[in-house]
Amino acid sequence: MTNVYKKIEIVGTSPDSFAKASQVAIDKASESLHGMNWFEVTEMRGRIDGGKIVEFQVAMKVGLKLD
User: Fold this and answer.
1) Is 65 helix (H, G, I), strand (E, B) or coil?
2) Into how many domains does the chain fold?
3) pLDDT over 90 at 1, yes or no
4) What value does the CA radius of gyration of the chain take, rounded to a whole number of Å?
5) How many whole angstroms separate alpha carbon 67 and alpha carbon 54?
6) pLDDT at position 5, please?
7) Given Cys at both, which of 26, 37, 53, 54 links 49, Cβ 3.0 to 4.6 Å?
8) Which residues contact 17 (CB under 8 A, 6 or more apart)?
9) Residue 66: helix, strand or coil by DSSP?
10) Would you give the DSSP letter of residue 21?
11) Per-residue pLDDT tens over the stretch 22-51
């Protein structure tokens, strides 16, 4: 059996952690996408305000298995 996948890029954010930002992105994407099978984190960054980390951002590629 062979499979074909489509890759999309999404970005999640969270004030708590990179892990939470990743989960937020997958949770939201799963509301409108089906067949998500894997993900690959491509970037991790954040936002600083007043010398404090106030937001974590994760860019990721998500593999969708085509029907």
Assistant:
1) strand
2) 1
3) no
4) 14
5) 40
6) 93
7) 54
8) 56
9) coil
10) H
11) 999 999 999 999 999 999 999 999 999 999
